[in-house]
Amino acid sequence: MTAHIIDGKAFATSLRDKITEQTSWLKQKHGITPGLAVVLVGEDPASQIYVRSKGKQTLEVGMNSYEHKLSADTTEAELLERIHQLNSDPDVHGILVQLPLPQHIDEALVINAIDAAKDVDGFHISNVGRLATGQKAMVPCTPLGCLMMLREYCGNLSGLNAVVVGRSNIVGKPMAQLLLKDNCTVTVVHSRTQNLPEIVSHADIVVAAVGQPLFVKSEWIKTGATVIDVGINRIQRADGTGQLVGDVDYDAVKEVADSITPVPGGVGPMTIACLLANTITACCRSHSLPEPHGLTA
Ligand code: NAP
């Protein structure tokens, strides 16, 4: 059996189409243009690429994009002042502070200074708590994208055994909460877990967010499972050229699984699409408008 390949690129395109429609409806019907502010501190090259890509996609769906590029020596107080300005700006519905921040700035302090209703990354402590207690929250983009693909490909998730490999605050933990909310039986495994392969082998759904290239092996996968690979790892081939691979041994696992996300082209493209979805959700909530179907958890 060769698995169905879950095309995250196509899924992200259809999600952006929905967002474009919704944005144009908000403009025409209510005279509101959703706005996303992205704050970048310093010149980290990878962060610059992400921010550029976020800005481009924000404009492409018809939203306003506000880029705030601050120098690496920006003080914590200056950054907090900028966040406060964005919190009180009615044209800004979503705020994202690109991580990592320079070492002299307390990341948690900055994230928690964002108005939770505008926290489109879903990292604010009150959104974390809301998600954990089943209340309406802003949901972190990467796990939200994984959930959307799982719902599309597995249908109703209720009662399925899900194993999340990794317990980070940005992927593993919120992923587990979302699966629990959809009534899966959820196990989270990590670097101290004993019998990890055995636990994974009972899973109907495996979400790998480990940061270790090709970590999840085909022998661990139950026949017919759905495998979502969040990992992005750059490895060197024998000929010295670079290659992007996930946390799942894709070539072998696709012979066992029912469906699987590739790397690249799986979870990756969904992350920015979900950021835009969260911006629409935040915009609708702030104006007490009905939330569009299918854009949040
Ligand atoms: P992270 O913060 O480094 O967390 C990795 C998790 O994996 C930790 O919980 C760690 O366990 C666990 N782990 C590490 N080695 C392990 C091992 N040998 N056995 C079992 N568990 C192990 O990483 P992250 O931020 O969640 O990201 C995970 C991967 O997803 C990375 O490749 C990252 O680049 C990628 N990512 C992709 C996107 C996207 O948009 N596609 C977004 C975010 C992240 P402990 O807690 O015990 O240390």
Compact description:
With 297 residues, the protein is an alpha/beta fold. The chain has helices at 8-30, 45-60, 76-87, 107-111, 125-132, 141-154, 172-181, 196-200, 250-253, 267-286; strands spanning 4-5, 35-41, 64-70, 94-97, 161-165, 185-189, 205-208, 226-229, 233-236, 242-245, 259-260.
Number of helices: 10
User: How would you state the average pLDDT, rounded?
Assistant: 97
Largest sheet, in brief, is: 6 strands, parallel
Heterogens: NADP nicotinamide-adenine-dinucleotide phosphate
Number of strands: 11
Low-pLDDT runs: none
Q: What level of helicity do the residues show?
A: 25-40%
- Shape descriptor reads globular
**Radius of gyration from CA coordinates:** 19 Å
Strand content: 15-25%
Distance between the termini: 31 Å
Structural class: alpha/beta
> Would you list the SSEs in sequence order as H and E?
EHEHEHEHHHEHEHEEEEHEH
Taking strands numbered 1, 2, ... along the chain, how are they ordered across the largest sheet?
A: 1-11-8-7-5-6
